[in-house]
Amino acid sequence: MSIITKLALAAGLAIALSTAAFAQDLTGKVIGFSQIGSESGWRAAETSVTKHEAEARGVDLKFADAQQKQENQIKALRGFIAQGVDAILIAPVVATGWEDVLKEAQEAEIPVVLLDRGVDAPEDLYLTSVASDQVLEGRTAGEWLVNQVAGKDCNVVELQGTVGSSPAINRKQGFEEGIASAANVKITQSQTGDFTRSKGKEVMEAFLKSSNGGADICAVYAHNDDMAVGAIQAIKDAGLKPGTDILVVSIDAVPDIFTAIAAGEANATVELTPNMAGPAFDALAAYLADGTEPEKFIITESKLYTAENDPAGEYERRKGLGY
Length: 323
Ligand code: AHR
Hints:
- The chain is α/β, with parallel strands linked by helices.
- The protein has helices at 3-23, 41-56, 70-83, 99-107, 134-149, 166-179, 197-209, 225-237, 255-262, 277-290, 311-318, and strands spanning 30-35, 60-65, 87-90, 112-115, 128-132, 154-160, 185-192, 219-222, 247-252, 268-271, 297-300, 304-306.
- It has a six-stranded parallel sheet with strand order 2-1-3-4-5-11, with helices on both faces.
- Helix 5 runs parallel beside helix 6 and helix 7 (197-209) packs across helix 8 (225-237).
- The protein starts with a helix and ends in a 5-residue tail after the last helix.
- Alpha-L-arabinofuranose is lined by residues 39-40, 42-43, 116-117, 167, 195, 224, 226, 251-252, 272.
């Protein structure tokens, strides 16, 4: 084969490869993102990571903040459909009530990707869901507590997430599964703190008042770190030591909880990555290029962190990530 033929073949291959690479690209695609709001540090980080990922991939991201309201999310989705976007990302605030608008997106042939929360709707109405195993998160927290108290009686107060949201439902179920084998560990009070610091504090204050000033509480299980941080403040205000007098276990692994763990004021957290957009954009790139169907559920990792996992270092590693 002549050198000219070899060069021509190599050039052809290069063009084919770059065409394939280009086909995976999202440059110029218009993608609508309906975000819940900014109830927690974790949510702020997810927003910031999504914007950053979109920019890095050349996506024209249309961002809509729903301020915690499902009706705003439905309105945003209808707006995206009317604009004819190439795809939609949505973090659904609650699990029910999505079927009609998802059908409208399907009729308009716009793929929808769910981020971090699930919906009660037929699976064929969305392309994929990128989320953690929320039952596993709760179970991990429950099992950690059972091991920690090692057979001692332990009354747990639970701060639930937003009523009707998939993480509140699943993290509750998972925790109950995690403590099911331990008759010594019981949930004595459970109420929503809506995933916010201020409500976590407020509800914890009420729990403390109705539990002999906190003397009857062994542990607080919060469905996210922000509520745990609020609860820690309430425990301190009541003159008790969080992390010692009352154990604190929660979910998210945001920088502030590592500060609390390093100070001995919180005990454990289960990590939820804020990078849901990376896997979502990968799935969309392949799907928009040649119709490749992703897995229906892309499950992110749920790692447990305690004081043994270098909390000060974890704080440093996360502090600049938009939390
Ligand atoms: O859906 C994920 C949850 O929503 C996070 O754990 C919480 O912090 C957020 O608000």
